[in-house]
Design a protein that fits this description.
Helix 1 runs antiparallel to helix 2. The protein contains three helices and no strands. The chain starts with a helix and ends with a helix. The protein is mainly α and 79 residues long. The protein is elongated and about 50 Å long. The longest helix is centred in the middle third of the chain and has 26 residues.
């Protein structure tokens, strides 16, 4: 999987998380759920930043290392 493909997948996941936040009722009992979604969004934004930086970086060795790290994190998120 290329970095650009990973970035596209993260953008889809970001949209789904945004939809989840928007659809979540404003009940007091949903505070933990909202916190979990916010945590996932925070991690997602950090991953997107790393990928965007890696894409801009022309050093192939660094790209491969970062790509492997991102793939491992994505596997954990998508479990």
């Amino acid at each position: 999987m290329k970095l650009s493909e990973i970035l596209e997948t993260l953008q889809i996941i970001e949209g789904e998380l945004d939809d989840a936040v928007n659809q979540l009722p404003e009940y007091e009992s949903n505070t933990d759920t909202r916190g979990s979604i916010d945590g996932a969004r925070y991690e997602l934004y950090n991953l997107k930043d790393e990928i965007e930086r890696a894409i801009l970086d022309s050093n192939k060795d660094n790209l491969k290392i970062i790509e492997n790290k991102i793939i491992n994190v994505l596997k954990k998120i998508l479990k």
